Every structure is written in structure tokens, then in C-alpha cells.
Request: fold
Amino acid sequence: MKKVKSIVAMLLLATSFAGYAQDNRPMPPESANPGLIAVVNRANWCAICKANGQRFAGVLMPYAAKGVNIYFNDLTNEATKAASKTELQRAGVYEAVTTIPAKGVGKMLKACGLKKDRKLSTEVSGIVIFINPKTHRQIRQLSITVADETMRNTIDKLLK
Reply:
């Protein structure tokens, strides 16, 4: 019953996010000396992305002007995965995105049947991964379902 409630809640959230997954906005310009790197795993088929993308993008995009380099890891199909991989490798963050341990969003991913082991991979959408621009190591990850204030507070702390 708990699993059914989780699925119903996600489906309800999905109805409010249809525009984000198909959003093809140009990427914000990269900062030469970013204070933080954010990689957003998304896909057109992702219910979590559809439910939260517009709201989440509204919270994240203003940080591009504050020194956050934002990349999208588009998992929609093999072509978008390959293009995203190339871009993430160019930025030096592909390794961090593909080999990070699940923290914080693991229970949600398990409940959705999207995660079986302790490693989070590029196949999991609906999350944002924050990476240290100096070490290119993952420092935090959050589901895009978190409250706007939680996301802002997290980014503000990571930028300090």
C-alpha cells in the first residue's frame, strides 16, 4: 500500500511538470571560474522531471549568474545520452556523475524501482548533482522534488 501511495503521489506531481522535460532552452553561459557545478539528470519519460522541472528550473537557473555552471544529463534516448556524455566529459564531471554513492534520494529511488544497489548511475533522472569545480568530485545530490527553499539553502551553502 505504501508503494502504491508513493506512485500515486509521483503521478500527481508529474501532471504539473510536462513542459520541463521537453524544455530545450539554451544552456546558461559557463563561468570561467565557477563556484559550483550542477548536473541535472533529466529525461522526457521521467515522471519526477515532468512534475517538478519548471519549478526546479526557476530555482536553479538564476544561480548561473552567481557562478554556478549548470549542465543537463539528458537520458531521454541513446542519442541524447551520448551527447550529454560528451558534454559532461568535456566539463570533466562525467566520472563524478556516474559513480557517486546514493545519498538522500536513495529511499525515493528504491520506492520507485529505479535503484537496486548503492551506486547511482547516469540512468537515474530527477536529481541534481552538485560537484566541486576544483576537485570535480560530487559533494551533494538532491532530488528535484525538494522544496524551493531547501534547494536555495543548499546551493547558497555550497557556494560559500
